[in-house]
Write a structure and sequence with these properties.
Elements lengths: L52 H17 L7 H22 L3 H28 L4 H27 L13 H7 L9
Helix pairs in contact: 1-2, 1-4, 2-3, 3-4, 4-5
């Protein structure tokens, strides 16, 4: 049972995001708050970004990397942080690219591709060091390879588009949707 009102913690009243349950066990940073973390992406999104398979797959990659790094040994905070940042940067840059056209769009997708390539190297290191189960690493490697392939197609497509003219913004062009597919990001557990 979670203590209601203020969380019982260190007792000096300026909350570090960690508290204790009534039975004294420690709460994590987001436990006990009014968040529905288990069902975050269930509601159907209607904007253009969520129609992109590459975006949905990059979010799945971010989720998998986050789950993986939680099991790393205590002394690997740098690797954990680097992998979280790189995996978060991929969907951020995809989202940024969707709002642009031509070379500017391609540049955002290239940054996302670079971050995804960084994850490939990190996953190789995780595999060598034995920090995660082989199945978990293989699933993340397959997903990052798929994201890289889709980003490469998106970059080519964006570079082939004419330069943007003043005041032209709008939904994702048909070529972008065609380059990424319209299916969902289906991955093996």
């Amino acid at each position: 049972m979670v203590a209601r009102g203020w969380k019982r913690g260190h007792g000096h009243g300026h909350g570090h995001g960690h508290g204790r349950t009534v039975d004294g066990s420690r709460l994590g940073r987001y436990q006990g708050r009014n968040h529905n973390w288990g069902n975050r992406m269930i509601r159907r999104r209607q904007n253009d970004l969520h129609k992109l398979d590459v975006y949905r797959c990059s979010l799945e990659l971010y989720r998998r990397v986050g789950s993986m790094v939680n099991g790393f040994p205590r002394g690997e905070a740098d690797l954990r942080s680097q992998m979280r940042r790189a995996s978060r940067s991929v969907p951020f840059n995809i989202g940024e690219g969707v709002g642009k056209r031509g070379r500017a769009r391609a540049a955002s997708y290239e940054v996302a591709l670079g971050e995804a390539k960084e994850l490939i190297v990190a996953l190789d290191c995780v595999e060598i060091d034995g920090y995660a189960p082989d199945e978990q690493i293989a699933a993340a490697q397959d997903l990052v390879d798929r994201v890289c392939a889709m980003l490469t197609k998106l970059i080519r497509s964006a570079e082939a588009q004419p330069a943007p003219t003043e005041g032209t913004t709008g939904p994702i062009e048909r070529t972008t949707l065609a380059a990424t597919g319209r299916g969902s990001c289906t991955v093996m557990p």
